[in-house]
Amino acid sequence: MSADPFIITTLDEEGLASLKKWFLGYCRSFYTSREEDNRNIRLKEEHTEQVCAFMDILTLDLGLDPGERRLAGVVALLHDVGRFEQYRCYGTFRDSESENHGTLGVRVLTGEGVLDGLAPEERRMILGGVALHNVFRIPDAIDGPARRLLHLVRDADKLDIWRVFLEFYGLPPEEQASAVGLGFPDLPVCTPGVVETVMRGELVNLATLKTLSDFKLLQLSWVFDLNFAVSRRLVVERNYVEQMAATLPPGEDAARVVAFVREYLARSG
C-alpha cells in the first residue's frame, strides 16, 4: 500500500466492471448513420480506452494499492464523458465554442445516476477529477489525495492526446475526425508570443493561438505540466517530441522550441 492513500475505497472489481459496461453502452448510443459523426465519437471512445491503459501503467509504476488503482481507473474511464454530448449538441470539441466538457461530464454523471452506488467520498473524488481534468491550472485549494488524482488523470490524458493528434496530422483530410483540429487554419506560421511562452517553460493558453502550427507548439508545452517521472519517460519512449517536430513548419522558431523541449525532458527525466 502506498504511504498516502487517496481514501479507503469501497469500489471493487465488480463495481469497476459495471461502470465500464455503462460507459460502453453510453458511447454506443451516440453513433449515427453519418460516418463523419462516427469518426469523432469513435475517436473519443478509443481515446478513453488508451487513457485507461496509461493510467494502469502510471498507477502500477507508482505502487498504488488495488483500491487506489481502481479509483484512478474510474476517473480515467469517465474523464471525457462530457465529450459525447458536447459533440452531439454542438458538433465541436472546442469548449470555447460550446461548453466546458469537464462540467458537462459532471452533469451527465449526476443526471444518469452513474455513481449513486458509491460512497460519498468516492463520488466527490471522481466528480472532482472529471470536472477539473481539463483546467489550465489546478486550483491551489485542491491538495492532498484529490490533487494527486488530478495529476494522474491529467498525465494519462496528455499521454494519449499526443497519439491522437499525431495520427490526425498523418491522415488525409477525408479520413480525419473533423472536430480534432479545433478549426485552426493550417498555416506554416508560428506566432511569436506562443514561441516565447514555450521558451520560458510555460504552458501555452489555447486562447492565444492563431494557427494549427501554434496548436502543435501548445501540445509540446504540455511536457511542462507532466507530474511524474514515469510520464516523462513514456513521452521519450514513444518518441512524441520527434514525431511532433516532423509536423512543424521549417524555420528557426520551431527548431528552437523542439530543442528546448528535448533539453527539458533530458534534464527532468
Helicity level: 55-70%
Radius of gyration: 19 Å
What summary fits the major beta sheet?
A: none
Look at the helices and sheets and give the structural class: mainly alpha
SSE run: HHHHHHHHHHHH
Walkthrough of the structure:
With 269 residues, this protein is mainly α. It has 12 helices and no strands. Helix 5 (101-112) runs antiparallel to helix 6 (120-132). The radius of gyration is 19 Å and the shape is globular. 35% of the residues are buried.
Summarize the model shown.
The protein has 269 residues and is mainly α. It has helices at residues 13-28, 35-61, 66-78, 82-90, 101-112, 120-132, 144-170, 192-199, 212-221, 229-237, 240-245, 252-268.
Structure characteristics:
269 residues; mainly alpha; 12 helices; globular
How are the elements arranged and paired?
Layout: H1 13-28, H2 35-61, H3 66-78, H4 82-90, H5 101-112, H6 120-132, H7 144-170, H8 192-199, H9 212-221, H10 229-237, H11 240-245, H12 252-268
Helix pairs in contact: 1-3, 2-3, 2-4, 2-7, 3-6, 4-5, 5-6, 6-7, 8-12
